[in-house]
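Course assignment 3, question 2. Fill in each field.
Student: A.L.
Task: Predict the tertiary structure for the chain below.
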Amino acid sequence: MLTTHPTHHQAAPLPKTLITFDVDGTLIKSVGTHANKFHKDAFAHAFKVVHGIDTNIDVIPHHGSTDQLVVEAVLKHHGVPHDVVWAKMSECTDAMLAYAYGAAVAGFAATGLEILPGVQELLTALAAREDVVVGLVTGNLERIAWIKMKALGVEHLFTKPNIGGFGSDRTDRGELVHIARQRCIEKLGCEVSRAVHVGDTPNDVKAAEHGTSIFIFVWAILLMTSCFSFTLQGAP
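Answer field:
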C-alpha cells in the first residue's frame, strides 16, 4: 500500500508597491564651492583620459539628463564626431567608475552633497515596511548613484539586493522605471502591483509615465513622510 504525503509548495511573494527615487535634486542637493564634486570630477577625468579634452559638464545644461547623454553633449560641444563619441562611450563610463571608486575609497564622495530635509525620515519609514520595494531611478551610472547613497549614510535603507533603473542601462530616461519593475521580478521574485516615482524634473515625469507609475514631485517628500502609511493602506 502506497502512502501519499501532502506536497508543500512555497508561496509566491505577494505583489508589492515599488517606490523609486531620483537622486540629484530629489534625495540630495549639491552645496558649496565643491558642489557634487566627485561626480563632476569623474566626468572631467573621463574626458581627459579617453579624449584628451580638459573640460567639465558645466559647459552644457545637464540637470535631468542621463550620464551617457551628458558625455555625448559635452563632447559634441567640443566638436567630437558622433560616431567617435559612441565608439568610446564604454571607455568613458569605465573611466568615470574607476574615478568614482577611488573617491569612495578616499572618503570624499560626499563632498559638496547633502541629504534633503525629510529624506532620511521617509527612507527609514519605508525600510520598516514589508509591502514596499524601495529603489532608485536616476540618470546617474548605477555604481555612482549607490556610492552617493552610501557616502551620505542612507544606502542601507534601500531594498536589498539593490533595485533600480540607471543611466548605465539606457540613455532614454523614459525606460528606467520599467527596468526597475523588471528587476523586482528578476532579483526579488515578486510582481509589482503599483509603482510610484519621486523626482524633480520633466524627465522624471517621462520616466514615470513610460513605466506606468504614479509621479510625485520632490517637494512632497515632507508630506509623504507623515502621510505615506495612510496612502498605501487607503488606496484601492
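Instructor remarks: The two ends are 51 Å apart (CA to CA). The first strand starts at residue 16 and ends at 21.
Grade: pending
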